[in-house]
Amino acid sequence: RHVAFPQITLVTPDAPMSAEVYGGRAKCLQRLIRLGMPVPQTVALSFETVRGIAQGRMPDLGAIMAPFGFAPLLSVRPSSLDPDWGGPGAILNIGMCRDRYEALMATAGERAATSLYLRFVQSYAVHVAHLDPEPFDLPEEPTRDALKAMLDAYERETDEPFPQDPAIQVGEVLRSMARAWEGTTARLLRQAKGAPAEAGLGLVVQAMALGVGRGESGSGVIQFVNAETGEPCVMGRYLAQSQGREALSGKRETMPLTKQAGSPSLEELAPFALRELLAHGKVGRERLREEMQIEFTLENGRLCILDAVRVPRSARAAVRIAVALAQDGVIPREEAVMRVEPGSLTTLLHRQVDPAAPRDRIVTGIAASPGAASGRIVFSAADAQASAARGEPCILVRRETTPEDIRGMHAASAVLTVRGGMTSHAAVIARGLGLPCVVGASELEIDRRRHVVVAPGGRTFGAGDIVTVDGTTGDLLAGEAPTLDAALDDSFRTLLDWADDFRDLGVRANADTPQDARIARDFAAEGIGLCRTEHMFFEGERIGMMREMIFAESAAERRAVLDRLLPMQRDDFAALFRIMAGKPVCIRLFDPPLHEFLPSDRQGLRDLAEVLAQPLSDVEARVEALREYNPMLGLRGVRVGITVPEIYEMQARAIFEAVVQARGGGEPVVPEVMIPLVSARREVELVKARVDAVAAAVRAETGVDFAYRLGVMVETPRAALRAAEIAQHAAFLSFGTNDLTQMTYGLSRDDAGRFLGTYVAQGVYEEDPFHSLDLDGVGELLHIGAERGRRGRPDVVLSICGEHAGSRRAIEFCRREGFDYVSCSPYRVPVARLSAAQVAL
Ligand code: PEP
Ligand code: MG
Question: Any idea which positions bind Mg(2+) (predicted)?
Fold first, then answer.
């Protein structure tokens, strides 16, 4: 239905209004009016009107001002489509002039009248006439002399008396605000916040609620949740004899809204106004379906509501608010899931002190940045860096931090300061770094001479003593407290549980170590989608064995070395199976170039010669012979499996023996064995025959029957093109988009960083294809591979497991293409669960 909007409209409950025509603030004010809130008379100017004003077409000012009656005082505020896009600052008290001043002296008193006139001349001079602000600083005392001086200054600077006609004032204010929106800086600023180039500005003209004058007059803001945690509570400030957002400016001392010891409050000063605000807040939350921050003014004891904006909030609060609104029946669960930005969840995932463990509390300060870490106390940034260089976790303890401490903070595992609050240097930097931090631990005393901290009761801790900082509770604990990986609060879990109800794409984790696997399980990954096994061969003594194996003269010798690696590898897998408790675990067989195991320096060569009992020159010659010019396209992945089959046989045996071992512990394990870097069907046939043979042997030796699934990684273009025949031998195809991107572009994963910046800057590529999945090229190969794979085997399971897998873009693509799951790094799992729900809704 087409609704014709007038371009200038009095905001009433049923005036036709839309945010697309008048902006978000105008629309919101109409909603507040509909809810019966005491909003002063308001007129809204459309984007089109304001654009016209900027271009010199001033509308009929009489029509704008008529609804306000005789000699009004007005404010003008910006109203863009999205309040986050900013806009020119509000101008208040428009209409102040000699006559109005005289009249106000009688009603509001001389002091208030002078103060209002001064404020208006100041903002008009600076923001409308664009004069140098210095002569227009507000005086300490609003005297007639100060007013005269300011009016004289105006006349001196402009060669004209201060305009006395309210219509002229309104016209000039509208013009200057309309033009400010068109300025280049304003344009760039809002485009950086996502505004389209053609974004318009609406303006709202509103009758002033004075906030300055007789009776209880002032202004403030109120909200009903804590912006950091999202917990319900009445928060805000009130400032007597003030206007606009002065209560938030921090220049004068404000008072709390509710009763608090040691300070007067709005509750005592104007109990009725507070009760009214609370009632409006409740209605606002339910009907606007959002936590709002309300801007209000008291004019001689009468409450006016000037504006309401969505409470700005932390990621944590966003989750809690969305869940609470859904639990209270204000919004449906689907909407709660849609309201949280998936990427923001990553900031919530921190280690926590185990709540079940005993706590040896030294002191409590302000919990400035969540998470927990233990380490040795250091008292300077330099010591923190030295400690980090030794690989020793440390806790930086300072009276307060300064910018010189930043490198030390980077090096520390956590930070504690004796002074400071939520916005002190230490707190802000630590939150940015994701570092646990406690500030304002004022009961601690740093004794610099003795190099110790002294806690209440005389307990002392010196440099090198181990402590734990709990940035979530604000506690400093003695010793190394047991921690849990990212304990997620109830709202977080609830939101993700709801997300799971709405999504139809599986989410697994890429996990190589027991530590990764535990995080994956705690984040409710549905299994491990990629366990890269190579790091297992680079550790400790294993790399030596790998070298021995590579240089062995015969298959029998190779087997002898691999027999020593077998039990280690079996333990690796058994640990993963235990942690994943019956959930699928997909193990990728050996993938890296053999080249990477060659010794790279003389010492390495000498060690190898010693182990092999061969002359150094022979070893050197063999290493030289094995070196590759292009190892990433050389002897790696399944090619190693084909040419040195004993490695895959050992890994298969380790997997199956671990399955037998884990069998007693609950859910049966059905492992998935994945072959990397395949480009031809025959590779799969050969490896499958050997893995099947190993499975048969282990079954025969142990007398235990078990199942397993064999699958293929599609990460060469040829594998995608030949997916139909490859899938005939593969229960699943997992697309490795890292290698697939590398090979589709012919772009080295390891080297492209050097020039990709230039490529993106010149618009050759829109984005780095290793970060953002290339839907056009790599996407087409994924599409072809999926379609042909299904043609070869209708029930083939499809997934992607490259670094792209956790991104919204890849998730959207995979769902559209009918993939079964994505597999991403453990910390991305919650993000992927939420994204998968959002793309399904
Ligand atoms: C890939 O290539 O996308 C992949 C998952 O394997 P890797 O990153 O280990 O090469
Ligand atoms: Mg790969």
Answer: 715, 739
3-class secondary-structure state, position 83: helix
Residues 463-479 have a mean pLDDT of 94
Q: Is residue 364 part of a domain?
A: yes
Same-domain pairing of 97 and 240: no
Residues with a known catalytic role:
425, 801
Spatial distance between the Cα atoms of 64 and 58, rounded to a whole number of angstroms: 11
369 and 468 fall within a common domain: yes
Q: What is the pLDDT of residues 802-816, one digit of tens each?
A: 989 989 999 999 999
Does residue 453 lie in a domain region? yes
Do residues 25 and 83 lie in contact, with contact meaning Cβ atoms separated by under 8 Å? Answer: yes
The residue type of 587 is: I
Q: Among 716, 738, 825, which is best to mutate for testing ligand 1, by the most ligand atoms less than 8 A from CB?
A: 738
Q: What mean pLDDT, rounded, does the chain reach?
A: 92
Q: Where are the beta strands (DSSP E) in 300-413?
A: 302-310, 352-353, 361-364, 366-369, 372-378, 394-398
Query: Is 145 annotated as a binding-site member?
Result: no
Residue 734 CA, closest ligand 1 atom number:
5
Write out the two tokens for 757: 């910046």
Please tell me the distance between residue 735's alpha carbon and the centre of ligand 2 in angstroms. Answer: 9
The ligand 1 atom nearest the CA atom of 736: 3
Cα–Cα distance measured from residue 773 to residue 777, given in angstroms and rounded to the nearest whole number? 9
Give the pLDDT confidence score for residue 319 in this predicted structure. 95
Same domain, 175 and 281: no
For residue 492, what are the contacts with CB-CB under 8 A and spacing of at least 6? Answer: 319, 345, 348, 830
Tokens describing residue 325: 């609104």
Contacts of 217 (CB under 8 A, 6+ apart): 112, 210, 211, 240, 241, 297, 298, 299, 300, 301
Find the largest Cα–Cα distance for the chain: 108
Same domain for 197 and 289: no
Residue nearest to atom 1 of ligand 1 (CA): 736
Q: What is the pLDDT of residue 430?
A: 81
Q: How many domains does the chain have?
A: 4
Report pLDDT for 486: 61
The H helix count followed by the E strand count for the chain is 33, 30
Q: Measured at the alpha carbon of residue 712, what is the angle toward residues 709 and 714, in degrees to the nearest 5?
A: 150
Angle between helices 602-612 and 616-626 (to 10 degrees): 110
pLDDT tens profile 338-355 = 999 998 887 688 787 887
Ligand 1, residues at Cβ distance < 6 Å: 530, 532, 591, 715, 736-739, 801-802
Are 313 and 321 within 8 A, CB to CB?
yes
Q: Is residue 3 part of a domain?
A: no
Reported ipTM: the value is: 0.99
Residues in the chain: 841
Residue 778 Cα to ligand 1 midpoint, Å, equals 14
Domain boundary, last residue among 168, 188, 207: 207
Q: How far apart are CA 27 and CA 773, in angstroms?
A: 39
Q: Is the pLDDT of residue 487 over 60?
A: no
Residues 234 and 257: their CA atoms lie apart, in Å, by 8
Strand partners, 335: none
- 475 and 514 in a single domain? The answer is no
d(CA 607, CA 594): 18
The response to whether 93 counts as a known ligand-binding position is no
Assigned domain for 359 exists:
yes
Tens-digit pLDDT profile for residues 646-687: 999 999 999 999 999 988 767 788 999 999 999 999 999 999
The reply, when asked if residue 715 is annotated as ligand binding, is yes
Do the beta carbons of residue 789 and residue 817 sit within 8 Å? no
Distance 572 CA to ligand 1 centre (A): 20
CATH number at 118 reads: 3.30.1490.20
- Express each pLDDT in 286-330 by its tens digit: 999 999 999 999 999 999 999 999 998 888 889 999 999 999 999
739 assigned binding-site residue: yes
Structural domain that includes position 762: 503-526+715-841
What is the 330 CA–ligand 1 centroid distance (Å)?
A: 44
